[in-house]
Model the fold of this input.
Amino acid sequence: MALGSSGTLYVGVAAKRVDYVADLIGIWRSSNPWAPTPTWTQVPNPPAISDGEFSPRYWYHFSLSVDPFDDTVLYMTEYDVWRHVDTFWQALSRNGFTTSQKLIMHPDNHVMAWVIGAFSEKRLLVGGDGGILISKNNVPGSWDELNNGLATMQIYKGAVDPRPDSFLAIAGMQDNASAVNTGTPEWNTISFGDGGDCAISSSNPDTQWAVSYDVQDGNPDLLRTLDGGKSLPTQAAFDLSFDLLPDTHTFYVHFEKSPRNDDLFIAGTARLWRCNNFFSSSSPDWTQNSPLMLDGNGLPVALS
Done:
């Protein structure tokens, strides 16, 4: 509701989550929400992203906020940040305000708040998987980061160098990829998406690492680097080490490396998989290491 508004209310409704997806059913606006029988007008949904970066996850990131000085202007967060005026949506998280332009802020945005100043100054705070940003005064789509000195990363999984005098460590982080640290304040990114499980070779800890990350092109990925990730940010240093067979799987392929054998890995989907040549082979081999595990309804149960 805008400041001084007589009562304009926006309501957004998302579909029930199915696996990883929940579509936006719609957004409605009422100018008399306190009436015995309010009247509602549907606001058009924002356009679908067509560049392969987006999947509808309104169960995970979805919030609405009204312009504090104009209740006809609506802001929405989800993967992007949007501004609705009249019948037009602007993608404020992308160059040019269009869905086909490059992202200029971290995706997956969850919450908004307004900073109100004198002379109708307004700035929008946005919190998301990349931390906190604030818009410039009355300039939608122009952002300043507020993350300097803030520890905002959620680490899912990690691995440390087995050498007792080493600072080498790898962390898999929520929506901030996997990163490696060698003892300096800076962590260097070595994968993509949501970082998951990590492993460091005991025999070649400076060069041989393994990481998993979230679903890409329909399958999660389990990757290795044999040169310490020097070729990144491209994927040239990585070999796809686990060609997932058609099983049910979770957001990641979780894995464990043997503490006594760097080549021995166990990974889990709806069954267990074993690899005996993870680092030594040019094309690592995976074999089934368990039966397909089913639930009470006879459906595959993905391991987590």
